[in-house]
Design a protein that fits this description.
20% strand; 38% helix; 209 residues; alpha+beta; 4-stranded antiparallel sheet
Length: 209
């Protein structure tokens, strides 16, 4: 799984009356331009053989329809696998935010938080987990060859301290095809038995070995 960074951007303008926009510096327009410009960060700066994601998940500004707000906020989620790509994304995101704001006579304050590292499963723990899972539910219901996922996981910190393996437990058809973070996601309660059995058997196998 990917490294996950968060970026908090405050776009600072000069508020005013919506009927007199020429007397204000509109941070909403600047923020909108920044959001659009960020769409080119991956496509025009990262080798297409490398995986990267820059997603704007938050855009907030103002309360009243007849008021130009003095500030706007942008929240960005950044995902990558390579340290070089991670550094390049940070460099370009900061440049894009600053230069786009300046072109609209606004300014930005940026807080760039480097979050979870890359999840990289170790061979021995992975082999153990696969063996236990296959024994428990059968060969045809287990896969050890998953493609890299752009999601991030704080389990990566544990892997920095000790070799480990992140295991994903399928949720089955009860989810209705809706993935995590979907407002209509439905957890399959029957999966609790499978999960508990797997972890119990994993502990037993590890201790015996």
């Amino acid at each position: 799984m990917a490294a996950g960074d968060r970026v908090f951007v405050k776009v600072i303008g000069n508020g005013g009356h919506a009927a007199r926009p020429h007397l204000a510096t509109d941070p909403v327009v600047a923020a909108a331009a920044i959001v659009m410009a960020l769409q080119t960060v991956v496509s025009r700066n990262i080798d297409r053989s490398q995986a990267a994601v820059v997603s704007v998940g938050r855009l907030r500004a103002g309360d009243a329809l007849n008021v130009i707000s003095g500030e706007a906020e942008i929240g960005i989620s950044v995902r990558s696998f390579s340290p070089q790509v991670r550094a390049r994304l940070r460099e370009r995101i900061v440049q894009v935010c600053e230069s786009t704001a300046e072109s609209h006579e606004a300014s930005v304050k940026i807080v760039y938080v480097e979050g979870y590292p890359v999840v990289d499963n170790a061979d021995a723990p992975t082999a153990l987990a696969l063996a236990v899972a296959r024994e428990l539910v059968g060969e045809d219901r287990v896969t050890g060859d998953m493609p890299p996922l752009m999601g991030s996981e704080d389990f990566a910190y544990m892997q920095q301290a000790v070799p480990g393996a992140l295991v994903r437990l399928g949720n089955g058809p009860a989810s209705g095809g809706r993935a995590l973070h979907n407002a209509n996601y439905d957890f399959n309660d029957d999966n609790l038995c499978v999960g508990a059995a797997f972890w119990s058997r994993l502990a037993e196998t590890y201790l015996v070995a």
